[in-house]
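Bug report (template v2)

What were you trying to do?
Predict the complex of my protein with zinc ion.

What happened?
Run completed; filing so the output is reviewed.

Input:
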Amino acid sequence: MSYWRLSVLPGFILLTGAIVALMARFVFSKTPMVGALADQVASYAFPVALVLAFVVYMWNLLAVLEWQRNPDAAACRHCGGPLGHIKDGRWGPYSKCFACGRNTPRT
Ligand SMILES: [Zn+2]
């Protein structure tokens, strides 16, 4: 079991923020219609993405730490990893594994 999936979504958020900031700075800032807006976006996109990525990472990390602390917590039927929140699906309630990303039915 690995915890690398904890950092996938925060990494994607950071990358998206960096790409948006760079595109706003170097592509759209010279455009006459949206130049002022692009400057604003360029200055705020990456800091907002950084804060959002940190919040998402801490949310996932706290969920995993809570799972580790509870000895009766359900585990993934595929890898034994920690499970996320219970969701309603077509075949009944299920949880997604933080480690492998597969679904485990919850009854
Ligand atoms: Zn799993």
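What did the reviewer find?
The chain has a mean pLDDT of 88. Residues 76, 78-79, 81, 97, 99-100, 102 surround zinc ion (CB under 6 Å).
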